[in-house]
Amino acid sequence: MGKIKTRYVCQECGYISLKWMGKCPECESWQSFVEEFVESKKGNNKNSIGNLGKPIKLKDIELEMENRFSTFNGELDRVLGGGIVRGSLVLVGGDPGIGKSTLLIQVANNIGKKNLSVLYVSGEESLKQIKMRADRLKIDNENLFIVSENNLEYISKYVEEYKPDLLIIDSIQTIYNPDIASAPGSVSQVREGTATLMKLSKKMGIATFIVGHVTKTGSIAGPKVLEHMVDTVLYFEGEKHNVYRVLRAVKNRFGSTNEIGIFEMTNDGLIEVTNPSHLFLAHRPKKVAGSVVVASIEGTRPVLIELQALISPTNFGTPRRMATGIDYNRVVMLMAVLEKKVGLRLQAQDGYINVVGGIQLSEPAVDLAIVAAVASSFRNKVIDYQTIIFGEVGLTGEVRSVNFAEKRIREAEKMGFKTCVIPKGNLGGLPKLENVEVIGVENVYEALDIILGGKAVG
Ligand code: TYD
Ligand code: MG
């Protein structure tokens, strides 16, 4: 037994202090310090990623072929960069109840069906609960092994014994190493657990999914603490009352981080959404002011999404501005551009902007659609139902070109749209299109003139 010491660890960012503090100097969260006991063990380097030995020449490192396998879930494969890499650690973060366990048990089933073995370790649910869920999802699989265990030592033993192709840990906040005195879910336990799993998976070439709950309070450590340790970080997002879920890569050592996967939560579990445009436009109202469709690029995929604006006279001194699914500051800026450059008197108007479907849009290419929706609602003029709009808007009201213009237009064409209003700068690179009319615009004024008709501006 080594010497036992105590220290205080911020459960948000992992900052270590010898005395308790009310506010973390690193991440500035309040009340996030928790006392932890540490046993110092000399000469035990737990963070090394396996027995790699002495340095060797880069060109002498051999890569095994076929070190990736499919999860047989197209959306997940896309986010992972084309399947899961053997020996890699993937963190799946998200709010409790969002569907992490559901997704992973479904993936376990897919993989098991292809004669790869899966070990699913649950620290949260009993075997019966898992079985009930599996029955509901109609999962029945010879190669799927389940264990309900929290102790890291036993988990390691099972892994070494069963040598699964895929290991799932649900969740990292419930497993603990008995050698560490602090409670499961604390920063030390979460880090230690991840380090041990990482060593195991690198050594044995096992692909590992780790579930991490996102927490609002500092009482248990969230996935942020281990983002830097794992190879890939995926976040499962969505609103509870909405059936759509978005899986987003925020870090990926084996692929791009702009990919998203879209799922729908149904009674039969999560279903992949292969045609998101169709989904986001399904319940679009016809002939109403303030609604417009934008072609946005999500990852490498174009997606058509409805944007809505509601502009109404303000009741208080200062007008309210609200943005859902889109950057608030961008909305405020674009409304200012409309005031100054187009002459819309928005200073006494409340403005609400909403992206339909609970998705987040972050690229500036949606600017022109925001501008169009706001002007449409303000003027109470309907934008043509079969028109899509995209383009970045600058502070002088100019419409700047964006990338992937053709991809966006093709998607609109596929979904039956007839007109695309796009930046003039993008016209040059386009091939001849038969089914859609493409109109290039130079500035916001011109765009609104086309979209809403001459009298609507100025
Ligand atoms: P779960 O996967 O347990 O979430 P997490 O592991 O992220 O905490 O999902 C829980 C929610 O999903 C629960 O509210 C019920 C819902 N659900 C369905 O709608 N359909 C299903 O087939 C399943 C299994 C769950
Ligand atoms: Mg769960």
Descriptive notes:
The chain is of the alpha/beta class. It folds into three domains: 4-39; 68-274, P-loop containing nucleotide triphosphate hydrolases (Rossmann fold, 3-Layer(aba) Sandwich); 279-456, Ribosomal Protein S5, domain 2. The protein has ten helices and 23 strands. It has helices spanning 74-80, 100-113, 127-136, 152-162, 187-204, 276-280, 328-342, 367-379, 405-414, 444-452, and strands at residues 4-10, 16-17, 33-39, 68-69, 84-85, 89-94, 118-122, 144-148, 166-170, 207-213, 232-237, 244-252, 260-266, 269-272, 291-298, 301-313, 321-324, 349-355, 387-389, 392-393, 399-400, 419-423, 437-441. The strands form five sheets. A nine-stranded mixed β-sheet has the order 8-7-9-10-6-11-12-13-14, sandwiched between helices. A hairpin with a 2-residue loop joins strand 13 (260-266) and strand 14 (269-272). Helix 4 packs parallel to helix 5 (187-204), helix 7 crosses helix 8 (367-379) and helix 8 (367-379) packs across helix 10 (444-452). It starts with a strand and ends in a 6-residue tail after the last helix. The model has no long low-confidence stretch (mean pLDDT 88). The chain binds thymidine-5'-diphosphate and magnesium ion. Thymidine-5'-diphosphate binds at residues 94, 96-102, 133, 136-137, 265, 267-269. Residues 100-101, 124, 170 line the site of magnesium ion (MG).
